[in-house]
Structure to design on (572 residues):
């Protein structure tokens, strides 16, 4: 594209975009860092490393990583089934994969709690084996698996659909068995997309609040997630403390956003798709 | 971040893999993979959805309806609709303007601008609520000015609307940008050369080309606007009958152990989610039809 453009409206649309972006997103986000600057470095460090907060980082990042890994495995299998196989009810399954995008997180939260609590449909079964899920860190993991699943499926699915059949035919005619073709030809092509889906699911899980707090039990040092720590500080009118933790979360979000953008560029390069 | 929520119109013909000896697996592999993925799907997606309706109707239709028409529930429904009616058109206008600037023109810093538009997707909802408390709260930048002028933003409706606008900010823009980039600008330039004004070109050339993507962006934006919990929870103050949206009402009723009533209101939100998915499927079907007609024409 050259800049000699016959179309009108560039200044108007860009100006409007930048103004609205600044008012709604950039200036309010800047408030977090400006408010944090009211603390000295020592105070900031003290707030963000108290044992209760550190315990919440461990749970948030640990459960998010585990949930993203679980979703990478099962999301890949689900995407594979949807693209490669015919089975009854496939259209409905394909549509419902997006449910976690569309279902409000609070609804997901109470539904998962009802299912996995000791008297719930699934909770009563697993508890007879001595496993408690609701109101433990396992419950947090479960909620994060729920909200992350579509990210993996929807990132892998289009790349899988675009794979050239000819490549697999070539592999087969050169004597590769099916497993060799999948592991050595298909998987390396899917890998950037799978990693992108993993990173998207992870990024979403780190910030998630609504679906988690109902099932987590929110026991200090055990099952409190980091976003809940911000809420707790706010409820004590400790705005500076809340803001310091928010600053830590924002920095993590920025790093994840940059990572995901590079991963998507890599996927596009590897598969020739533009997303 | 938005790649995962784009419309997808890929081929849905698994038969071509299953009938080709080079691309099919043995039957037992096929059914094992389907079995594992469908069990996972049922356990994590289907059962939570089913349990919402089961719990909502557990005490019968009468209790269900009573939970929906009690004054606090009605006021929550009203507030949720209000927030969505304000937030969705504003973000629609923003999304169209941003997509026009980004997709039809070339300028430095374009990909950085797209990253900035994506920011609300990657910020925790709780942080999204907090930033508006920092700006408009009692001790915030503009807080004292608003208090002096007897206006409440935080723990009031304007704060809820602002938080809703923030969390739904990228939806329309991110849906439209790739679509409008793919369209290029030949058609718009032809229309301009032939003497159409900018607005005529926009309404009669650009919009018809992207209408399905636009509609999808709007329904996703609406679903999130009506369902947002974390961000709205921080700015709401949870005043019953005044600053509770439907998701917040669900939380309060649930925490009072009125489970059937909580699930009754939750079931309305679940129906909204299902409706969103049905419209999405319809749009994908329509867009696939249109693509087929184009390739045949």
């Amino acid at each position: 594209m050259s800049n000699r453009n016959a179309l009108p409206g560039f200044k108007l649309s860009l100006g409007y975009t930048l103004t609205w972006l600044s008012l709604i997103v950039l200036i309010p986000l800047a408030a977090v860092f400006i408010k944090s600057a009211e603390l000295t470095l020592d105070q900031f460090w003290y707030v963000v490393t108290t044992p209760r907060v550190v315990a919440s980082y461990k749970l948030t990042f640990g459960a998010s990583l585990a949930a993203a890994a679980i979703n990478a495995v099962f999301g890949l299998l689900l995407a594979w089934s949807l693209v490669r196989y015919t089975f009854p009810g496939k259209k409905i399954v394909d549509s419902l994969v997006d449910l976690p995008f569309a279902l409000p997180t609070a609804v997901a939260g109470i539904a998962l709690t009802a299912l996995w609590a000791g008297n719930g449909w699934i909770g009563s079964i697993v508890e007879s084996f001595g496993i408690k899920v609701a109101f433990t860190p396992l419950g947090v993991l479960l909620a994060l698996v729920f909200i992350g699943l579509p990210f993996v499926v929807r990132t892998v699915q289009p790349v899988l659909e675009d794979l050239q059949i000819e490549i697999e035919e070539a592999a087969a005619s050169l004597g590769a068995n099916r497993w060799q073709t999948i592991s050595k030809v298909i998987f390396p092509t899917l890998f950037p997309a799978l990693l992108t889906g993993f990173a998207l699911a992870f990024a979403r899980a780190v910030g998630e609040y609504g679906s988690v707090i109902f099932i987590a039990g929110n026991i200090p040092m055990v099952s409190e997630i980091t976003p809940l720590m911000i809420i707790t500080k706010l409820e004590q009118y400790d705005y500076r403390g809340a803001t310091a933790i928010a600053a830590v979360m924002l920095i993590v979000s920025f790093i994840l956003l940059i990572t995901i953008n590079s991963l998507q560029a890599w996927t596009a390069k590897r598969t020739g798709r533009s997303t | 971040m938005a790649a995962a929520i784009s419309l997808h119109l890929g081929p849905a013909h698994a038969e071509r893999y299953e009938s080709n000896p080079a691309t099919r697996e043995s039957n037992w592999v096929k059914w094992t993979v389907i079995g594992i993925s469908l069990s996972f799907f049922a356990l994590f997606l289907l059962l939570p959805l089913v349990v919402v309706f089961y719990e909502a109707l557990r005490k019968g239709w009468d209790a269900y309806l009573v939970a929906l028409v009690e004054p606090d529930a009605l006021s929550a429904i009203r507030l949720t609709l209000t927030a969505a009616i304000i937030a969705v058109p504003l973000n629609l206008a923003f999304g169209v303007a941003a997509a026009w600037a980004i997709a039809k023109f070339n300028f430095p810093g374009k990909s950085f601008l797209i990253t900035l538009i994506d920011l609300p997707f990657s910020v925790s909802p709780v942080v999204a609520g907090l930033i508006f408390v920092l700006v408009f709260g009692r001790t915030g930048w503009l807080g004292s000015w608003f208090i002096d002028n007897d206006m409440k933003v935080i723990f009031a409706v304007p704060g809820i609307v602002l938080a809703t606008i923030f969390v739904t900010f990228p939806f329309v823009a991110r849906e439209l940008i790739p679509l409008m980039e793919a369209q290029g600008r030949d058609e718009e330039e032809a229309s301009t050369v032939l003497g159409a004004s900018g607005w005529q070109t926009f309404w009669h050339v650009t919009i018809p080309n992207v209408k399905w993507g636009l509609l999808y962006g709007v329904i996703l934006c609406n679903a999130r606007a009506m369902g947002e919990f974390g961000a709205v929870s921080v700015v709401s103050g949870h005043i019953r009958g005044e600053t509770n949206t439907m998701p917040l009402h669900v939380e309060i009723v649930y925490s009072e152990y009125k489970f059937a009533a909580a699930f009754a209101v939750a079931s309305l939100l679940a129906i909204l989610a299902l409706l969103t998915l049905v419209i999405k499927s319809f749009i994908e079907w329509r867009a696939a039809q249109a693509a087929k007609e184009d390739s045949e024409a």
Observations:
- Chain A has a mean pLDDT of 91.
